[in-house]
Amino acid sequence: MADVAGAVGILAQIRLVAEVRWRILRNGLRRKTNRFDLLGMIVLGVFSGIFVLGLCFGFFAGAYEFLSHGRPGWIALLFWGIFVFWQLFPIFATGFGAGFEFRSMLRFPLNLTAFYIIGLAYGLADFSSLASVCWLTSMTLGAAVAKPSVLPAMLMVVGLFLLLNVTLERVIGSWLERLLSRRRTRELFVALILLSMVSLNLINPIVNRYGALLKPLALRVIPYFSWFPPSLAGRAIAGALQAHFAELVLGSAGLLFYAAVFSVFLWRRCSAQYRGEELSETAAPARVAARRVAKAEDVPDRLSALSPQVAAVVRKEFRYLMRNNFSFFTLIMPPMLVLIFSSMFTGKHPTSEHQISSEMFFPGMMAYLILILMGPAYNCFAFEGRGIQTYFMVPLRFREVFLGKNLMLLSVLAVEIGVSLVMLAWWLGLPSLPVFVATLAAMVFAVVGQLSLANWSSLTFPRKLEFGQMRGQRQSGMAVLTAFAAQIVFGGVSAVVLFSGRWTGNPWLPAEAFALLAAAAVGGYFASLDALSRMAEEKRETLIEALCR
Amino acid sequence: MTETAIRTQKLSRRFGNLTAVDGIDLQVAAGQFFGFLGPNGAGKSTTIKMLTGLLAPTAGSMELLGLDFAAHPVEVKRQIGVVPEGMGLLERLTGSEYLQFVGRMYGLDRGTTQRRANELLDFMQLADRPKTLIADYSHGMQKKLALAAAVIHGPRILFLDEPFEGVDALAAGALKALLGRMTERGTTIFLTSHVLEIVERLCSHVAIIHKGRLVAQGSLEELRAGMSGEAGSKTTLEQVFLSIVGQDGTERPHLEELSWLM
């Protein structure tokens, strides 16, 4: 008869979860291709440390200042800052952070209470929680130094505030996990995050323009915020300092009430997970009408000018683009940003003081578009996944794959540039003819010139990316560096050539120079395709290994 | 004289210090249903990857349908079909789109590709979810689609790496019938599987690879006859397999070491 493992304490299980997370992180860095990520993480760690420590001083000083200068109610602002960061940052981190499937713990012999407590402890190990705990500690210290008598109340309120926040964060996290378990929702969520990030750029112009109109509305809404947890925490501290114990009790009881409500919600989510909630989205197959077998004449080929293989790659790339919300929204962003920058820098907006000449602004905006849109080309196999093997199994040379992919990219660029061009012309007006022609030729030079490098980078530093996800999605460090270096070189050369017209007094000189450079870039591109095909054969194992992982 | 579909000479592949495939000499006649067996980590998938151009050998040569693979990779690939390990599907296409993509990549015209894609989808019972992405297919459905993609151009050699894994009994029956018909028409099928019963039922010839080396090759009858002390024709492939790969004792489990479990 086999013996049975003994019970493991909750603390030991928490430690095991922490260990496994650490090992996942460490083992991920053991891959040779991830060494550059380690460098990135060190840099990120240093900056994060500076950010947290810097704000620790800020929260200490803020609490000290408010309490020592008779404005204890203002401490609510500090609680608001922490609350917003604590709850919002993990939502963005859901997109960008490294993944760990907490539900996978369910296969082990945990009871529901242990699962719930480990869930809370797991929530406390997030960056936002750790940073917030540091800031709350600094606030407590600042308050205690300013008014030592407030320390007991501060400890109680901060304790309740901490419990409330960590519970709420887990509630939001577990609901997000449920929502994001469906691919479509996940992709929409990513799109929503992207849109909100772009929308942040609009806040300043809107406030400048409509601030006066919004102010009375904001003043009417603000009192309702006094019943939110950060304001309650502020009221409790102010009550303790001013000996208004009713305020202290009301504020603390409010925090306790919120913590209890969130705990109930979290308990219900944990119970559902514990019972084995099914989040899979695979639907049962449904029989539908038999398909009509298409005849050859039914399908006129719009890409008949291309070879079958190149046309197939173009079609596949188009479908992938349409189905990848993340990529798709990166296409909407550039024209939007052109619009925003136009309104900010061209003097058309009432808040703008200086107008930049379209002679400068037009080439600058076009360079900006290329900068954004060429980025993905440096890892153009990112979304192939296991499908990369298809390219090596079928009878073609890799130049046809590159031609198809590059053709699709050029089409997208043409559309993006066309839309932006129309917007700029409508908003700002076009530059002089020599600058316009020079800019177009410069774009051909910069784009086609970069394509060869981008194709080389895609073969040399491949990195798999998942559709519709930002979670754990990082480009290869070397691909990013290559893109960065190439953009600097092409941008630098283009700037020098563009300014040569001014220096020499010949307005058509840049256009002529760029025409020559563009012709050389096109020639170089076609010359590179065969070499890249050979390279693809040599690098197939690296590619397959990196993308089929 | 029978045409040779696959011939390798001293085919080897090393990964650093590890020799995954160690100088194997394979010979598969055209039209054979050939089973390639071996325990986990024996070198089966590495061999199939080399034979299909997904992996370069470190030594040795391969000839498929009389063509040197290294010298004529495109011509060889035109005549073979592959269901690789992991299936190699483009998961953000629908089944129909993927088949059309693959057909066009093999150079079929659009009409032929579409017609064949529809017929294959119907045959594989995948036609009822035309808008479903491959990413949302079950494992068995993905396997059937990978097989459909491997045969859309009518290959002369078909490489199948664990083709029946995750496929339900009904579909497996249909696939076996299809594969049987293909061999009757002269297609060579090179199959790896851990399910020895399937290999025994389908394959006429078998090779066994163990620790990177080819330890047995021949028809099932020849392998059975090679077993000493057994009753020839009554010997199952499993017994043959175990007697060959278990000869050095390393593959036999030492149950006494797990006494705590019993």
Structure description:
The complex is a heterodimer of chains A (549) and B (262). With 549 residues, chain A is mainly α. Chain A is 74% helix and 0% strand. Chain A has two domains: 26-199 and 224-274, no CATH class; 308-547, no CATH class. The longest helix of chain A is centred in the middle third of the chain and has 39 residues, at 183-221. The two termini of chain A are 40 Å apart. Mean pLDDT of chain A is 81; it is low at 95-99 and 281-291. Chain B has helices at 44-51, 73-78, 95-105, 110-123, 139-151, 169-184, 196-202, 220-225, 237-245, and strands at 4-15, 18-24, 27-29, 33-37, 59-64, 67-68, 80-83, 157-161, 188-192, 205-210, 213-219. In chain B, the strands form two sheets. A six-stranded mixed beta sheet of chain B has the order 7-8-9-4-10-11, sandwiched between helices. In chain B, a hairpin with a 2-residue loop joins β5 (59-64) and β6. The mean pLDDT of chain B is 86. Chains A and B meet through α10, α13 and α18 of A and α2, α3 and α4 of B.
List strands and helices in order, with pairings.
The complex is a heterodimer of chains A (549) and B (262).
Chain A: H1 10-29, H2 35-68, H3 75-96, H4 112-124, H5 127-146, H6 151-179, H7 183-221, H8 229-241, H9 245-274, H10 308-323, H11 325-345, H12 358-374, H13 388-393, H14 398-427, H15 433-460, H16 477-504, H17 509-538, H18 540-547
Helix pairs in contact in A: 1-4, 2-5, 3-5, 3-6, 3-8, 4-6, 4-9, 5-6, 6-8, 6-9, 7-11, 8-9, 10-14, 11-12, 11-14, 12-14, 12-15, 14-17, 15-16, 15-17, 16-17
Chain B: E1 4-15, E2 18-24, E3 27-29, E4 33-37, H1 44-51, E5 59-64, E6 67-68, H2 73-78, E7 80-83, H3 95-105, H4 110-123, H5 139-151, E8 157-161, H6 169-184, E9 188-192, H7 196-202, E10 205-210, E11 213-219, H8 220-225, H9 237-245
Parallel strand pairs in B: 4-9, 4-10, 7-8, 8-9
Antiparallel strand pairs in B: 1-2, 1-3, 1-5, 5-6, 10-11
